[in-house]
Amino acid sequence: MSRYRAAIIGTGGIAGNHIKALHDLKDRVEVVAAVDVVRDRVEEYSKKNGIPRYYTDAGEMLEKEHPDLVHIATPPNIHYQLIIQALQAGASVLCEKPMCTSLAELDHIAAVEQQTGNFCSSVFQWRFGSRGQHFKQLIREEALGRPLVGICQTTWFRNAAYYEVPWRGKWSTEGGGPTMGHGIHAMDLFLWLLGDWQEVSAFTGTLDRAIEVEDVSLAMVRFKNRAMGSIVNSVLSPRQETYLRFDFQKATVELTGLYSYTNENWRFTQPDGQDDAAVTTRWNELTLNLASSHKSQLSQLLDSLDHQQRPLSSTPDIRPTLDFLTSIYKSAATGQIVQRGSIVAGDPFYDHVSGTGLQKA
Hints:
Number of domains: 2
Domain Gfo/Idh/MocA-like oxidoreductase N-terminal: 5-121
Distance between the termini: 48 Å
Number of helices: 12
Oligomer: single chain
Domain GFO/IDH/MocA-like oxidoreductase: 134-251
Pfam families: GFO_IDH_MocA (PF01408), GFO_IDH_MocA_C3 (PF22725)
Protein name: Oxidoreductase
């Protein structure tokens, strides 16, 4: 087990989750530097968190510090360029969602991974809670029978003041609304658990916020295994909730939470009068209780670095999710059902999830 040198780029609100995870795993990783374009902010962040050096230029930090791992916690529009810089400088990367705002960018990141031998992972921490990981294993083993019906709802509330931050609510800087920036975690978990999606039909709308991007989206999805699902993403919902439901042949599994979960947020139900003791035993055999946190994902990422293996939630793992999000936008814009893998070079939606980068929802 090695102890890695890490740096954080971006010291806004979400960087607090990253530094907490890094400090919790301090026996395995040392934070050597922080970067932010606002000097006072990065200086205060570094002093508060015991980070020895700070910079206002990512390139200078990479050249002087040579970190093994770079955490990117900036607004979405600069993720891509920072990922490429970090990979080419010899670091692996853990980047906040969305990793990038187009399939074209993601495919270039994958190419740079191949060239450098370094890896970039997206922060999709909902995959890394112990109950989610256990559920995934039960699905692989078909312990609950075939998946049939799924529901995925991210119904959150973001008021007008939230969108006064200059980069929010714009295609060019945020890269989308609740489809890209809020519901992405629940949708990624939903898709990861249910397997290869096949086609999607969707609507988006800007119903109540004075923004360029959507404030609500709805989608219907069909999976390769014939399961069907419905998805709602909203920033207009005063009673906030994240809710996922999975109906299998032998059981219903539900997850109710908001920004994270532990084992206690899940519910398991079998059909009335059909209590299958073997299935119940499998569901209840989990004893580990890890939250769906940055720490849980970072721990597995460090394990991958130790073994010089591609980490979970890196570019090939997350491409189906970005393809799905892009397909939601294309379906909503065109009124067509979009097939998985159909958005390729030459399609305007391949170059940006909005189709043009400036299109209004």
